Description:
There is one protein chain. This protein has helices at 2-10, 33-44, 62-74, 106-109, 121-136, 158-171, 173-176, 193-202, 227-239, and strands at residues 24-28, 48-55, 78-83, 140-142, 183-185. By secondary structure, it is α/β, with parallel strands linked by helices. The chain is globular.
Amino acid sequence: MKQSAARSAAFPSSAQPVTETARPAVVLLSGGVDSTTTLAVAARQGFELNALTFRYGQRHEIEVEAARRVARTFRVARHEIVTLDLRRFGGSALTGDIAVPKDRAPDEIARGIPVTYVPARNTIFLSFALAWAEVLGASDIFVGVNAVDYSGYPDCRPEYLAAFQAMADLATQAGVEGRQRLRIHTPLISLSKKEIIETGLSLGVDYGLTASCYDPFPTGEACGRCDSCQIRLRGFAAAGVPDPVRYREPAGAAG
């Protein structure tokens, strides 16, 4: 309880008042650990925060509600929630009638591309972020991708981000005319989940606001058994702090 109170007291330092000269940035915000930590990093760097969340046909609304909580707590300048329907294509356990994997061993999670990969999701999200950045006159996009504990997703790799950056420089009127040189920030790209959580805690992040589960219960509890829950639980265990979210079945997930 004392730890939670300390984090709550420290949290406003992450959401520092934005000055009139603060540069705008677009931050992709899913409501999970990584995107929330990324938002805190952007806030600490003094950017004006413009958060972008997607309701893309995922299995539940819980992560969208988490993104709303995080955005309110950080007092972002604008929070846009964009609706699009990737269920029309399917092809993923998050957007189609495919079971979410449960109780997988760590070496199995780390091997191959899992069925929770949503085809081209980060490319779609970053394209929306690029469009909004051009309208805002923002040269900075923050995304919480991670190449260490990333479950094998191909669109979380450094080479993918470098390719998108190169494309973005050619894709906008502002870029072609030399009025905008976009930079995609990936502050978590080389961090383990433990290091991400430690970074967030050092910035005063309250991870009780976040949601990571791929298959939560209707009442809001995380399953404790999907890949995302297991990676999250192991990260908190390695950091030596309890995970503040509610779990229905956490037994064995942090092993």
